[in-house]
Specification:
The chain is an alpha/beta fold. Helices cover 43% and strands 12% of the residues. The chain is built from 11 helices and 7 strands. It has a 7-stranded parallel beta sheet, sandwiched between helices. α2 links the parallel β1 and β2.
């Protein structure tokens, strides 16, 4: 019989195992990341993670979580990123082979999928596309003064590369029925965010590719294709966006339960790779603490009001940038 004494014995055992208040980390909204449990959600599954550069990368966190949940994986990034980044360190930690490849090159992608099947011993169960870069943003070209050759590169790297992955995987029949292919996006695909520039166009295209190819891949092979729309996150790529720290602060003030960080995104990706979401496809799924459904929060409004005087021209007019 489960009485009050039994309950408190179990409660004491729990806190001995997980000391401290799980709400103490972060804010007072019930953050319990101090308790890290695995559930073997990906036991026996094979995956490819594109885009893990360093410990700031969402893809890095996803790779770690995937292996924790029982998966075996390969890692892929551009040859330059592999040389300059810490991908080798992650590969050694996770016992994952690294396959340097340009994700905009079809032949390179064919190599990644073929070798991954060979290395991992069968078809792939999940793929993460965590790739994005804008030469215009890097060169500080504003949206009304874009270099169109650089725009083409932005679209190719950040969006069309996902189409190439999907097309190569389908033609090679490289992904198991019921498999999951996932890309990371941002709410700027639907709304204007100052400074996000042509990356907003790339994310809109990425989400469109997800729907269009998701229909074909689901119908023919039973493969799921989705995007996760993540909170602004200070990755290496994100740090290049103008006003990124202010954007993160604004989002934190707007979102009822705060920004989702890279670890939160990794957890969501694991669920999307698992069989728990076997009927979810062609969706853009928000992982942003509720930001995408907000208009204006009290905290954001107060901060906005306090800062108006800092954004006026010489005539006293508010600059709305």
């Amino acid at each position: 019989m489960f009485n009050n004494c039994t309950f408190f014995v179990h409660l004491r055992s729990f806190y001995q195992k997980y000391p401290g208040n799980p709400r103490e980390k972060g804010n007072n909204r019930g953050d319990q990341k101090g308790i890290n449990m695995t559930h073997n959600l990906l036991k026996g599954k094979r995956g490819i993670i594109f885009g893990a550069l360093n410990e700031m990368s969402i893809a890095w966190k996803v790779a770690e979580r995937a292996v924790e949940e029982g998966a075996i994986i390969t890692l892929s990034n551009t040859p330059v990123a592999v040389r300059m980044g810490d991908t080798a360190k992650l590969g050694e930690k996770l016992n994952a082979e690294i396959l340097p490849a340009d994700a905009t090159n079809v032949e390179d992608l064919e190599m990644v999928f073929s070798k991954s099947m060979e290395i991992l011993g069968g078809k792939i169960d999940f793929v993460l596309h965590s790739i994005g870069m804008s030469p215009n943003v890097r060169k500080k070209r504003t949206y009304d003064d874009l270099d169109y050759d650089m725009l083409a590169k932005t679209l190719d790297i950040s969006a069309i590369s996902f189409h190439k992955m999907l097309q190569v995987a389908r033609k090679l029949d490289a992904v198991e029925r019921g498999g999951s292919m996932l890309a990371l996006t941002y709410v700027a695909a639907q709304r204007v965010f100052y400074g996000y520039n042509d990356m907003a166009d790339a994310k809109a295209l990425l989400e469109s590719i997800t729907r269009s190819f998701g229909y074909i891949y689901g119908r023919d092979k039973g493969v799921r294709v989705n995007t996760i729309s993540q909170s602004p996150t200070m990755t290496t790529a994100g740090s290049g966006v103008k006003g990124m720290e202010d954007l993160m602060d604004f989002s934190e003030r707007m979102a009822p339960i705060g920004n989702a960080d890279a670890d939160d995104c990794a957890d969501y990706c694991i669920v999307m790779f698992s069989d728990l979401t076997r009927k979810v496809t062609m969706q853009n799924l928000y992982n942003d603490g509720g930001f995408s459904s907000m208009g204006m929060s009290l905290r954001a409004m107060k901060q906005y009001s306090n800062g108006l005087d800092e954004n006026r021209d010489e005539n006293g007019n508010v600059i709305y940038g």
